[in-house]
Amino acid sequence: MRYQITGKQIDIGDALQTHVKDGLNEAIAKYAERPTEAIVIFSKSAHEYVCEATVHLSTGLTAQAKAHSTEIYAAFEGCSEKMEKQLRRYKRRLKDHHSKRTDPVEHLEASSYILAADQEEGESETEDLQPIIVAEMQTRIPSLSVGEAVMQMELAGAPVLVFRHEGKDGLNVVYRREDGNIGWIDPRT
């Protein structure tokens, strides 16, 4: 597995890097068969250290975790525990569905835009009423079953996930509703 361990405006020593590699190997080995990449970023927010970890699995799914603590090692331990919990749930769901994915997840390339927030009170609107694009990026839309899409959304901690429903044309959306349930949008053509 490939590791990328970095710090945002803080120095990450060799001891912490070794601790992170050992800790992630231990947590991931129990539940994920073939992880391909782990990205761990440490930063400081006021008096707390923040640890953000992302693990890419060979199946195409991604697990993310984030934790805060006053000590950098404790921040990593909290993050590692959250990651382990997510991977445990992921593996349990795979067993529950009795379906083994033999092929990696296919991805469709798409553009992703960040639009500017509402304008200030005193500013006038643009004449053509077009939104101001702050950033334009490429994103990948996976080809998944609905169950896998819900699992990926929960692993990423995202409120919404756009995906291509396997075996069908068109895009689908799963999202977390205000009542705590999961919504699924399946447009019919």
Automatic annotation (TrEMBL):
What taxonomic classification does the UniProt entry list for its organism?
Answer: Bacteria, Pseudomonadati, Pseudomonadota, Alphaproteobacteria, Rhodobacterales
Gene transcribed to yield this protein: PSrp1
Give the matching PANTHER family: 30S RIBOSOMAL PROTEIN
Q: What does this protein do?
A: Required for dimerization of active 70S ribosomes into 100S ribosomes in stationary phase; 100S ribosomes are translationally inactive and sometimes present during exponential growth.
| Coiled-coil ranges (or none) | none
Of the GO CC terms on this record, one is:
cytosolic small ribosomal subunit
This protein's assembly is summarised as:
Associates exclusively with 100S ribosomes, which are dimers of 70S ribosomes.
| Similarity comment | Belongs to the HPF/YfiA ribosome-associated protein family. Long HPF subfamily.
- Designated name of the protein: Ribosome hibernation promoting factor
The source organism is: Pseudooceanicola nanhaiensis
Alphabetized UniProt keyword annotations: Cytoplasm, Translation regulation
